């Protein structure tokens, strides 16, 4: 599963882990992406989205119909 949120477009962040000796090694910070199933009344069906925890809060605030309309307007498949 890709580490990308379909609602917000959140992608992994990259940087370094720094040890006590100050040696740097590459690492990445993945967003908290979940697979979540929603009922969308405007489509009359369920959709499964890959959303981050912050994306779930966005759906709660805006509503699933508005968020799905934005995703479809970008040309993404739901």
Structure description:
The chain has 78 residues and is an alpha+beta fold. It has helices spanning 53-62, 64-73, and strands spanning 13-18, 24-29, 33-40, 45-52. It is 26% helix and 36% strand. The strands form two sheets. A two-stranded antiparallel sheet has the order 1-2. Strands 3-4 form a two-stranded antiparallel sheet. Strand 3 (33-40) and strand 4 (45-52) form a beta hairpin. One of its GO terms (cellular component) is ribosome. Belongs to the bacterial ribosomal protein bL28 family. Keywords: Ribonucleoprotein, Ribosomal protein.
Q: For the terminal residues, how far apart are their CA atoms?
A: 15 Å
How many separate structural domains? 1
The CATH topology turns out to be: Ribosomal Protein L24e, Chain: T
Average pLDDT number: 96
Strands in their spatial order, largest beta sheet: 1-2
Protein name: Large ribosomal subunit protein bL28
InterPro entries: Ribosomal_bL28 (IPR026569), Ribosomal_bL28/bL31-like_sf (IPR034704), Ribosomal_bL28_bact-type (IPR001383), Ribosomal_bL28_sf (IPR037147)
Pfam families: Ribosomal_L28
Keywords: Ribonucleoprotein, Ribosomal protein
Describe the SSE topology.
Elements: E1 13-18, E2 24-29, E3 33-40, E4 45-52, H1 53-62, H2 64-73
Antiparallel strand pairs: 1-2, 3-4
Keywords:
single chain; two-stranded antiparallel ribbon; two-stranded antiparallel sheet; 78 residues; Ribosomal Protein L24e, Chain: T; 2 helices; alpha+beta
């Amino acid at each position: 599963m890709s580490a990308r949120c379909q609602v917000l477009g959140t992608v992994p962040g990259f940087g370094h882990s720094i040890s006590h000796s100050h040696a740097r090694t590459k690492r990445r910070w993945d967003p908290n992406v979940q697979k979540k199933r929603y009922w969308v009344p405007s489509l009359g069906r369920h959709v499964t989205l890959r959303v981050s925890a912050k994306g779930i809060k966005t759906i709660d605030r805006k509503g699933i119909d508005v968020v799905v309309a934005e995703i479809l307007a970008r040309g993404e498949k739901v």
